[in-house]
What we know:
With 311 residues, this protein is mainly beta. The protein has a single domain (66-310), classed as Jelly Rolls (Sandwich). The protein contains 1 helix and 18 strands. Strands 1, 3, 6, 8, 12, 14, 15, 16 and 18 form a 9-stranded antiparallel β-sheet that branches. Strands 2-7-17-9-10-11-13 form a 7-stranded antiparallel β-sheet, with helices on one face. A two-stranded antiparallel sheet has the order 4-5. A hairpin with an 8-residue loop joins β14 and β15. It is globular.
Amino acid sequence: MTTHRTDHxxxxxxxxxxxxxxxxxxxxxTGCDSPLPQESVPEPVLEGTTAPSPFSxxxxxxxxxxxxxLTRHTFSSLTEDGWVVRLLGAANYSVKPYSGITMGxxxxxxPLAGTPGVGVMRFPExxxxxxxxxxxxxxxxxxxxxxxxxxxxxxxxxxxxxxxGISKIMFVFIAGKPMAYPTSFxxxxxxxxxxxxxxxxxxxxxxxxxxxxxxGGYAAGTAALIPRGKWRQIRLLLVANTPGKRxxxxxxxxxxxxxxxxxxxGWCGSTVSVAACGFDAIRYNPTYGGSGGPVPxxxxxxxxxxxxxxx
Length: 311
């Protein structure tokens, strides 16, 4: 596959000093469900040109039509491209070349994205359920209505699933709230499945007004499996709704195979303005369940080649 190494880093995306100062004052929360402070942001950019990704993706899927690059995290540094970090123990989040990551005889393979850097989240033995190693957030000042998010995901071979079955990977903020979070779903040493869970929705989903739903997981079968010790390439395509209506969307792929699609998602309720109903931020904030016992032995979650496009 031919790779493109041209840097399409977006112009004018540097974070204003005032906004950075606000972020510094944000409290770190281990529960990870705290709302995003309401900053003033510009109107969303609804048009743009789509540039090809420079990553040597396993499946050469171009970004959604009309989207532009919002952020690219190659994990060359913790604070690359405006990502702001909160640490729960300095040793628990680091960036490393994949070639140096081992556990006994096991070695982490090269990321599918073709980039050497890996964001390593360490879950130490005894870490309480509902906690996480660190939180790193990237605001999306344009508040796009369409978010095309992709990243490589892997777990250490000894990954032990929380008794709740949920190990949260990251959070996507919509209208100031963490409404969507991708998870590795599975208990103990059972199979892990990729699953997108929603919460805090104002208009519900499908034909109901439930504020939560889940997509993928067991229902998607073997296509949704995330084998321990190996990379999987995740892609999420999320579309904001008309406030109060269930016309938003959520689609997910693993290694280019679609595992779920829903076109009746009501992210924002009728009290949210059209301008505010967009994607505010991405927070890489892995969390070990929310109930059950602590982490039984030190284990790791790995991320590589994160990109987000929007319009």
